Every structure is written in structure tokens, then in C-alpha cells.
Amino acid sequence: MADITLRVNGSEKKVSVASETPLLWVLRDTLELTGTKFGCGAGLCGACTVHVDGNPIRSCSTPVSQVAGKSVTTIEGLAASDGFAAGQLHILQAAWIGEEVPQCGYCQTGQIMSAAALLAKTPHPTDEQITAAMNGNLCRCGTYERIRKAIHWAADAAKHARREIAKIDNGEEHGSGGSQ
Q1: Which terminus of the chain, N or C, has less C-beta within 10 A?
Q2: 5, 73, 110, 179 from 11: Cα distances, Å
Q3: What is the mean pLDDT of residues 69-98?
Q4: Does residue 24 sit in helix, strand or coil?
Q5: CA distance linking residue 129 with residue 125, whole number of Å
Q6: Residue 76 carries which DSSP code?
Q7: Which residues contact 37 (CB under 8 A, 6 or more apart)?
């Protein structure tokens, strides 16, 4: 057993586990963050995707010792990591609901985490960029087209929000709602 410290969803956590324990099991069993799913155990399906220092990784095949001292974001902490208030959905989670992406839902947390990493690096991705970034995230239900639409939906919503914020920052009128 080793004492390993990592930052999970903004909070420092110290765990006592074997250093080769996959991060997935530390998250699920030790820290009781069960949003990250076990799919294949070989890093091939993407269901276990989390962010380490902002980059998507497969937590089922990453030893916890490799993330010691690093920042880990799971689906439970995704909204807060992008500045959303406690209890709010991340824009991608809202897009997933809006586009009715999930069927069985099992792969969706990994899909959303991969999509979030894509949008962080490429705020307005093309279909080709989405395909490349999401390659390796398997969906047994075949909701790939809805996933693509949801990513575009989130990108468009974020772009609109950035424009509205810029208007407010510049003292311009914004939105269509007025005071009552």
C-alpha cells in the first residue's frame, strides 16, 4: 500500500492503495465517485474517460501512481471545473439532454468527458474534428449522430454565451429579455 495524493474535482484527496491500482477503482471504490464507468478494462471503449490536468485519459488502464499530484476531473466535477455553480449542469450535459443522446446511457459519461476535452481545445469543432476526438469512445446503442449534434449544440450555446458576456463587459444591451 502506498499513500497517494491527488486533486479530484478540485479537492485534495489522499488514498492508501496499491500504486498499480487503476485510477478507475480508486475513483469508484475508494472515493465513491461512481459516475465513471467500467467498460472493457483495457482502455479501448472510453466509458472510463476522465480528465487528468485537462487531458482525457482512460482511467481503467491508468495506475493511480501516474496521477499522483495531478488534477483529476470526473463527470461529477465537470460542471464546476468549467465555472458552473453547484447543482448546475455542464453545457454538454444540457446538450445531451436537449438532443436526447442517451439510450442505455452506460457510455455517456465517458462520451461527455471526451467531448468536454475537445471543446476546451477546439471551441467550434468540425464534424471531422469531432469524429477524431470521439474515436475510441464506443456506444453500443449507436447514438453517434446525436452525440455529434449535441457537441455542435454545446459549441453554439457556448459561443452565444461568450458573445453575451462580451456585450455585458462592454456595457452594451444584451439578450431579448427586458426589465419588468
Answers
A1: C
A2: 10, 10, 21, 39
A3: 93
A4: helix
A5: 6
A6: G
A7: 47, 48, 106, 107, 109, 110
Domain 86-169 has CATH 1.10.150.120: yes
**Which cell is 57 given?**
485519459
The residues of the chain that CATH labels 1.10.150.120 are: 86-169
pLDDT tens digit sequence for 100-138? 999 998 999 999 999 999 999 999 999 999 999 999 999
Neighbours of 13 (CB within 10 A): 16
Taking the whole predicted model, whether its pTM rises above 0.85 is answered as: yes
Superfamily of chain region 2-78: Beta-grasp domain (3.10.20.30)
| Distinct helix (H) and strand (E) counts, the chain | 6, 5
